[in-house]
Design brief:
The complex is a heterodimer of chains A (449) and B (319). With 449 residues, chain A is an alpha/beta fold. Chain A is built from 20 helices and six strands. Chain B has 15 helices and nine strands. The chains are: A alpha/beta (449), B alpha/beta (319).
Chain lengths: 449, 319
């Protein structure tokens, strides 16, 4: 039973349920305490120990039904088939001419042994490691061979050529066909259990590494969901609500300790202070023509940031800078992003003008607890870059990050003036795939906490 | 298991029967969870919409175990001084005063500073000792000689730090008090945590617990619950009432009525001596079921139709 449960847990993991070894042990203990007599209760027990959220519970129950639906070795038709008593008499001498193990089993209609052999053979044939549906046929064949089909077929052919016991041969052929159907069903079931999600996982992994500019619009939709998923994951990882400041609450223990030398007179007070300082984040996003292929995703990144961190102000610019914090806060991602793009993108880039706007809008609020993040390619159409403002920002802020969607090799080519801003950045990164995005976001959050 | 299992906890079925005797009607999942919690000595994390009897389950379990229910209500900013232990500062101060007065007696005859300190060391360090320890709920639960039920209510309201702090307690039934050492449970308590899912709980915490989700009960179960809680209510009216509430749950409301609200409503109807669920009575008492004005406004125009549907379906069910 234990190994069956472990198999079940394996299939849960394939479907994305994070089951830890500790939980596996718990489940085994729990099942030992409950027993396996009552199917419903077994399901409840596994749900209690293995699924730790409502969504996972649903998945588990679905999988449970599929998993513990035993391989249907179509017992009933075989029994019907064997039932007529008159076959028994010819079958008895016939059994002598059938020597292969599989043939014997089929003749005896030994369902338990057949089932057991099927499961063992399936394991050897790697039914649990299938990744593509094309493998199903191959695995089924392997199982059939493993169960001794070759000998059986040889015997059947011999009997057929000698024109002996044709009725028996026909029966056996039919039973063999039923067995093949059973095997196919079983393999199909295993495929669904163990590999339905793998394909999915594969494509997500590929998506994460793909460059954002190379994806088509369908993939973009998928990506959008993925970004929000990542943001949510990070958000729940880091969703520490800001604590109320506890100034004014006396820490008696430390006060007494501090005054131990003073004869028990409390002269020095010690206060509890558990204030967590969190940096303010300002994100500036370039949405001009030169980054138009990336703009949507840079904005998505900004949106995700604002979702995850408590104090984020967001700005966008192509030639003028605008604050979009409230739009992002109020609207759903798709709506917010298309609104921003519609209203402000498409103008030619002017970093100088934009930075000037920024200094008017928010520079006074950049202080030593502020992180400034710039998303842009620094392609300025040969205009004045106003790096002096960026320098000022750098001097005031705690950290300045520049995330450039272009590859490093293309920086400073053409009208890119990355070199002007580079000295005034605490961190310079390429950010053009989801993986980059996740990494940067994760690092930022770690820093923020 | 080291613990002797009390009779009602021999099997899930027996738990359910005993709960029923106490007036708590529960599903198989709940009974199984309690059984496993007792057998495996694991905490249960109970989730579900408000008002489905999460806290009640802990109370009834305590009643069944014939033991105390120790309750810790969580909120933002809850720290170990309030959850675990606190020193009795005023007593400690008195003690230092006392010590000062007696110091002359204690040190009499000791020559020099070193000898005095040596003499002082002979007296145990009782300043930080159990005598001055004020046990808060978590420590209380560990100190109980008999198995107690510890209810950590609304764990999702507490901070993440507190959650981390609970881990030691939940997996090993022990806590560390820096000045004293590790305090182990005399008898392992049955621990229940409830959560309304206002924030995602950490994986580490979830991993240590059995996860029980209590949904709204189905109609049959809810009828039995109402029947035990409000036995004065007539059968026909009870069926109407449960069917009505079930329909409300299907509507897009801000807050759907929970079991506790069904029971409140049933009690009100008994008090008002209502025999038949009609439009007037329902309209007048709707505020017992729905807690938002928006919801009430949404439901009121639908009332005649809802009541019609119920009256049409119910006799059919009886046949």
């Amino acid at each position: 039973m234990d190994s069956t449960l472990v198999d079940f847990i394996q299939s849960l993991r394939h479907h994305g349920l994070p089951v830890s070894p500790a939980e596996t042990l718990d489940a085994l203990q729990a099942v030992a305490a409950i027993g396996v007599g009552n199917r419903e209760r077994l399901k409840i027990t596994l749900g209690l120990t293995l699924a730790k959220s409502l969504a996972h519970r649903g998945q588990l129950e679905e999988l449970f039904d599929r998993f513990f639906d035993p391989p249907k070795t179509s017992a009933s038709p075989l029994i019907q088939f064997d039932a007529p008593a008159d076959i028994d008499t010819p079958a008895a001498p016939a059994a002598n001419s059938i020597h292969s193990e599989l043939g014997q089993l089929l003749l005896r209609n030994d369902q338990p042994t057949l089932q057991r052999q099927l499961v063992i053979a399936a394991e050897q044939a790697g039914a649990k490691d299938m990744q593509m549906f094309l493998q199903k046929k191959m695995v089924s064949n392997r199982i059939l061979m493993d169960m001794g089909d070759r000998q059986l077929q040889k015997e059947l052919r011999q009997l057929e050529s000698r024109q002996q016991q044709l009725q028996l041969v026909a029966e056996l052929q039919q039973q063999r066909q039923q067995l093949i159907d059973t095997i196919n069903d079983y393999v199909e079931q295993q495929f669904l259990l163990y590999s339905r999600n793998r394909g999915n996982q594969l494509s997500e992994a590929t998506l994460q590494q793909a460059k954002l500019s190379n994806l088509d619009s369908v993939q973009l939709q998928q990506l959008m969901r993925l970004v929000l998923k990542i943001a949510k994951k990070l958000a729940s990882l880091h969703s520490r609500t800001r604590k109320v400041s506890k100034r004014g609450c006396l820490d008696m223990r430390r006060t007494i300790a501090a005054n131990a030398a003073l004869d028990g007179h409390l002269l020095h007070t010690r206060w509890k202070s558990t204030r967590i300082e969190r940096p303010r984040v300002m994100v500036i996003c370039d949405i001009s023509g030169s980054v138009s292929t990336y703009a949507r995703f840079l904005l998505l990144f900004v949106y995700a940031l604002q979702d995850v961190l408590p104090r984020v102000r967001s700005f966008v610019f192509s030639n003028q800078m605008h604050e979009v914090t409230s739009q992002f806060r109020e609207l759903q991602p798709e709506a917010a992003i298309s609104q921003v793009i519609e209203r402000w993108s498409g103008f030619s880039t002017d970093y100088g003008r934009a930075l000037q706007d920024f200094s008017a809008l928010a520079l006074s609020q950049v202080d030593s607890k502020t992180q400034v993040i710039m998303l842009g390619d620094a392609r300025n159409n040969h205009d004045l870059g106003r790096a002096d403002i960026w320098k000022e920002v750098h001097n005031r802020a705690q950290r300045v990050l520049w995330l450039n969607p272009e590859d490093r090799s293309r920086w400073n080519t053409g009208d890119s003036i990355m070199r002007l801003y580079a000295p005034y950045c605490s961190m310079l990164e390429t950010c053009n795939s989801l993986r980059d995005m996740e990494r940067v976001l994760g690092r930022l959050l770690k820093y923020a906490n | 298991m080291s613990r002797v299992t009390p009779t009602p906890f021999q099997s899930p079925d027996s738990i359910r029967q005993h709960f029923e005797q106490l007036g708590y009607i529960c599903s198989d999942a709940i009974a199984t969870a309690v059984y496993l919690a007792v057998q495996l000595e694991k905490p249960i994390l109970i989730e579900g919409p408000p008002g489905v009897g999460k806290t009640e389950l802990a109370k009834k379990t305590a009643q069944l175990l014939n033991s105390d229910l120790i309750r810790l209500q969580c909120y933002e900013g809850l720290d170990e001084a309030k959850a675990l232990y606190e020193w009795k500062y005023s007593k400690q101060l008195l003690y230092t005063q006392l010590l000062k007065d007696k110091l002359g007696d204690v040190l009499r005859g000791a020559e020099g500073l070193e000898a005095s300190v040596e003499r002082l060391h002979q007296y145990g360090d009782i300043f930080y000792s159990e005598n001055f320890l004020e046990a808060r709920p978590l420590l209380q639960a560990l100190q109980q000689p008999e198995t107690a039920v510890l209810l950590i209510d609304e764990i999702d309201k507490s901070d993440q730090e507190f959650e981390a702090f609970l881990l030691e307690m939940l997996s090993d039934y022990q806590v560390s008090v820096p000045e004293i050492g590790t305090v182990r449970a005399q008898s392992r308590p049955v621990v229940m945590l409830t959560s309304n899912n206002t924030r995602e709980l950490g994986d580490a915490l979830k991993r240590r617990c059995l996860h029980l989700y209590i949904p709204f009960p189905d109609a049959g179960l809810e009828q039995r619950i109402v029947a035990t809680q409000v036995p004065e209510l007539g059968d026909a009216l009870r069926e109407q009432l449960v069917a009505f509430v079930e329909r409300l749950r299907g509507m897009a409301l801000k807050k759907v009525p929970a079991v506790s609200e069904t029971i409140d409503w049933a009690r009100a109807l008994v008090l008002l001596n209502v025999q038949q669920l009609d439009k007037q009575w329902t309209e007048d008492t709707l505020n017992l079921l729905l807690k938002f004005q928006d919801d009430i406004e949404l439901v009121t125009p639908e009332l005649p139709q809802l009541l019609n549907e119920i009256n049409n379906t119910l006799p059919g069910m009886k046949n």
